[in-house]
Design brief:
This is Polyketide cyclase. By secondary structure, the protein is an alpha+beta fold. The chain folds into 2 domains: 165 residues, 2-Layer Sandwich (Alpha-D-Glucose-1,6-Bisphosphate, Chain A, domain 4), CATH 3.30.530.20; 152 residues, Multidrug-efflux Transporter 1 Regulator Bmrr, Chain A, CATH 3.20.80. Helix content is 32%, strand content 36%.
Length: 345
């Protein structure tokens, strides 16, 4: 009994000391974090004012694969909002709002965590510096009750670490997006070139289709949607986690009444696949004869013949033709393709 009383007194004493110590800790915390990113502000700002973009690279939301999101109109700019929750932890949920927007200059966010009535207040300011952007975060945390004020002692370091990781993620996202846009702007169509292609790992589907104009392209669109939906919905991959779709087929099967092909989308590594309709395929590094083509999908035949004729003239053996869709296949009359024919002696 004596030990129980002594233990209780020690606990009460420790709590009293803690409570007194917390009176010297601020009930809320304000701090500033400044970062710089090597892209112009007109590229950076849309990643902040569109919450669907924001949650893909922001480490507060993107690190936990169990988070699910609901986005509400308008989907970008002042007045947009989203809610989130953790599928495996009922206590992790919240709401995020854009309360103010001055395009390419300022955004004001509010983040409500769980059942708290007091939000995080976050102002983000953007300053253009030639082709770079300075991004400054002004963060004010919600007030904490006396016995939880110790959290404010670690909050700044925790948030700074998350922002640092977020900006690295954003660099990766913008790098892929900007690189693709620049490549599309600089394409030379209908000119035969030689390119060294790196190896790829594709996840896709094996297909047989009638080789008529309408039937073949409709079949490609159907299998594109099937493969993309599986990668995005079933595997949970984001836009920056997969590459441009590739159709692999025998180079001269455009003459046949029926076409066999493999339609796949590049992934960075093998993962478990539960659907037997899908399989991985490795594309080895190779030297390729390449033509970039825009126009009717059926019109690609002339470009393929040009590749085959060049290989024959150079007495080169050829591999399977790779048709990379630089824009998603949707209209037979307007396709953008990279036609690649591996060659070797």
């Amino acid at each position: 009994m004596r030990w129980l009383k002594l233990g209780s007194l020690l606990v009460l004493f420790a709590m009293a000391v803690y409570a007194v110590a917390m009176t010297f800790v601020e009930d809320a915390k304000s701090f500033t974090i400044q970062k710089e990113i090597a892209y112009p502000v007109d590229r950076v700002f849309p990643q902040f004012n569109n919450l669907q973009n924001f949650t893909r690279w922001n480490a507060f939301f993107s690190e936990d694969q169990d988070f699910t999101f609901d986005y509400f109109t308008p989907y970008e700019g002042q007045g947009s909002s989203m809610s989130y929750h953790n599928k495996k932890d009922a206590d992790q949920f919240g709401d995020f709002f854009i309360r103010y927007e001055n395009p390419n200059r300022t955004l004001r966010y509010q983040l409500f965590e769980g059942k708290r009535n007091n939000p995080y207040l976050i102002d983000v300011k953007f300053r253009s510096q030639n082709n770079k952007t300075s991004v400054t975060w002004y963060i004010h945390t919600p007030k904490q009750p006396l016995l939880k004020r110790s959290l404010n002692l670690i909050t700044e370091d925790f948030i700074a670490e998350k922002i640092d990781l977020s900006m690295k993620n954003l660099m990766d996202v913008l790098g892929n997006k900007v690189q693709k846009e620049q490549q599309l702007e600089n394409l030379k169509f209908d000119s035969l070139m030689v390119e060294e292609q790196q190896g790829q790992l594709l996840l896709g589907i094996n297909v047989n289709s009638k080789n008529t104009k309408d039937a073949l392209f409709k079949n490609i669109v159907m299998n594109h949607n099937k493969t993309l939906n599986y990668i995005k919905m079933d595997l949970g991959k984001r836009n920056d986690e997969y590459g441009e779709p590739v159709l692999i087929t025998d180079a001269d099967n455009f003459k046949d009444k029926e076409v066999s092909y493999y339609y796949g989308i590049p992934l960075s590594k093998r993962i478990g696949v539960s659907d037997n309709n899908f399989s991985f395929r490795t594309v080895n590094a190779s030297r390729n004869y390449v033509i970039y083509y825009r126009g009717n999908y059926s019109g690609r035949v002339k470009a393929i013949q040009q590749l085959l004729l060049k290989a024959k003239h150079d007495t080169m053996r050829t591999g399977d033709l790779q048709q990379t869709f630089l824009e998603e296949p949707s209209s037979e009359t307007n396709t953008l393709l990279k036609l690649s024919l591996p060659v070797f002696r």
